[in-house]
Structures are given as structure tokens and as C-alpha cells.
Amino acid sequence: MIGNDIVDIKVAKQQSNWQRRGWLQKICTNTEQKDIIDSKKPETLVWKYWSMKEAAYKAHQRRFKLPPVFNPKSFECTMGGKVYVDDFVYKANTKINNRYIYTIATIYDKDCFSSIFENIADIRYEAKKIICQKLHIPVSLIYFEKNNNRVPTIHIDQKKVQIPISITHHGQYSAFVALI
Fold first, then answer.
1. C-alpha closest to that of 118 among 168, 175, 50
2. 88-93: long-range contacts (C-beta < 8 A, 24 or more apart)?
3. Tens digits of per-residue pLDDT, 81-118?
4. pLDDT > 80? residue 4
């Protein structure tokens, strides 16, 4: 199972005051709060943990066919890049730069295929083009579909071939990850 999340750092700074009273307590576990307070870059760690939680939530929702209900405190992140949900563990690979924080969460050891875009109008179309190039098939053969819980998959040539995909966007950035 896979999930991803991207945080536009500029937009996050404008839209969220993570330092306001009660914000961290509502979103983060006690251990995460301590990590953030002790961090040399607490704001970066806040958004890294947020991204890890969102990505793991998407993977967990897909894995167990859960309805869309997100309780961030039920997902506990570690500095080592793991996210714990009940008795389940997700590996979170996070890329941080001065523009965005991007996380892919998975239960697999194999690599996923991912792309990040800036100022893209239609992430689904771009994802289709790239996946078609990678699979050497025409764009007309694939389509996106969401299940009842709004979890997307790619279908190839009207057949039962399904490729798990996760799509995210925030501010100027969009990204997808797929198991191809």
C-alpha cells in the first residue's frame, strides 16, 4: 500500500500557526511534541510529521478499505521515518527542501514511481502521460477511478489491471506516487 503528501512551505507558513496554543496537542502525540520542541528546526519537523501522517493515512485507508476519517493523533511518527498506526508500521520516505516537504509512505521494500510538479493545472493528466510512457502504452488505454472511499486507482485497457496511485497537492506543488 502507498500514500503520499506534499506541503508547500510558503503556504503552510501563511495559513497555519502551528505555535498557537493547543495546535500541537491536537495534532501530535506527546512524543512528537517533545521531538518538535527539542528540534533545531521545529517548524520543519512539524510539517515533516504532518506530511508523514497524511501519507501513512492514505496508505492505511487504502490497505484496509477504510472510510475517509483522519485522526492525526492516532498516527505516531518517529525521527527514523516510521509511522505507527495501531499495530501497523509504515515506512515514510521524506524529501525536504526550502520549497516543499514531500513524503511517500509504504509497507513495501520495493521502489515506487513518483513525480513532483510545480504550477501544474491537471496532475491526473500529467500522471497518465508519465505512466503511459513508463509502461509503453497509449494514454487512451488508461483511466482513473476512485472507489467508494475516494481512493484512486489506475485501470488499464478496461481490464481488471489496477495500479495503486496516490495524488497530493498543496499550494504550488502537486505529486503522485504509483506502484508500477
1. 175
2. 88/60, 88/63, 90/3, 90/55, 90/56, 90/59, 90/60, 92/52, 92/55, 92/56
3. 999 999 999 999 999 999 999 999 999 877 789 999 99
4. yes
144 DSSP β-pair partners: 154
What nine digits make up the cell of 6? 506534499
Determine if residue 18 is left, alpha or beta; phi over 0 gives left, psi from -120 to 50 gives alpha, anything else beta.
Answer: alpha
Residue with cell 475517509: 68
Mean pLDDT of 61-79: 93
Helix (H) or strand (E) holding 27: helix 23-27
DSSP 149: T
pLDDT tens per residue across span 125-154 = 999 999 999 989 998 888 888 888 889 988
- How long is the chain? 180
Give the strands of the sheet with 82-85, arranged side by side.
Answer: 2-8, 100-106, 88-96, 82-85, 75-77
Give the chain's domains with CATH numbers.
Answer: 2-178 (3.90.470.20)
DSSP secondary structure string for all residues of 105-131: EES-SSPPEEEEEES-S-HHHHHHHHH
Task: Copy the grid coordinates of residue 142.
Answer: 488508461
In whole angstroms, what is the distance from residue 36 CA to residue 45 CA? 6
